[in-house]
Amino acid sequence: MEERRYRSASGAPIALRCRQHSASCRELAVRCPRLQLRSLSAVTSAVWLAAYGLFVLSENSMVLSAAIFITLIGLIIYLHFVKIDQESLLVIGSLGIQVTSSYASGKESTTFIEMSQVKDVVINEAIYMQKVIYYLCILLQDPGDPQAVSEVVPLFQSSMPRLDCLIEVYKSCQEILEHRKTVPQSS
User: Fold this and answer.
1) Is pTM beyond 0.70 here?
2) Which of 63, 83, 156, 161 could cross-link to 104 by cystine, CB 3.0-4.6 Å?
3) C-alpha torsion 171→175→178→184, nearest 10
């Protein structure tokens, strides 16, 4: 298992961990930076200072209770539904591709795509906030027309790695896809 350091499109440090289980099975995981105590403290302090200011003006203690309640509920929602710590891609040449997102609360979201549906894995580009960003995506084959693409599934949407990291993941995926084409499939 090897781990390399990269940067995201926003400049935040990320890490790519590659683990090769066999010639046709590889796991690629992008770890995002953990939740910083400094930013959490700043947001909490800002909410509580605003609540204290409202308390002084209104002399109602419910304002302080509401601020504490809103801060705690907001933190739970952020950790459980928004903050992703790791996004991983498990490519198994004979079965398919599993995409997993691990949230800061410990919750995981997993999607599996059968290899028979995968047409290709490509690096695409998009214009985002006045700059060009690159992203990796899986092209799904249209069941009615084998030459057409029915859907595009973007990968690593939370970590948004830069092009150098995406090229490493792309090469690994292409090696397995090529290995799958050269090895005869058993019925």
Assistant:
1) yes
2) 83
3) -160
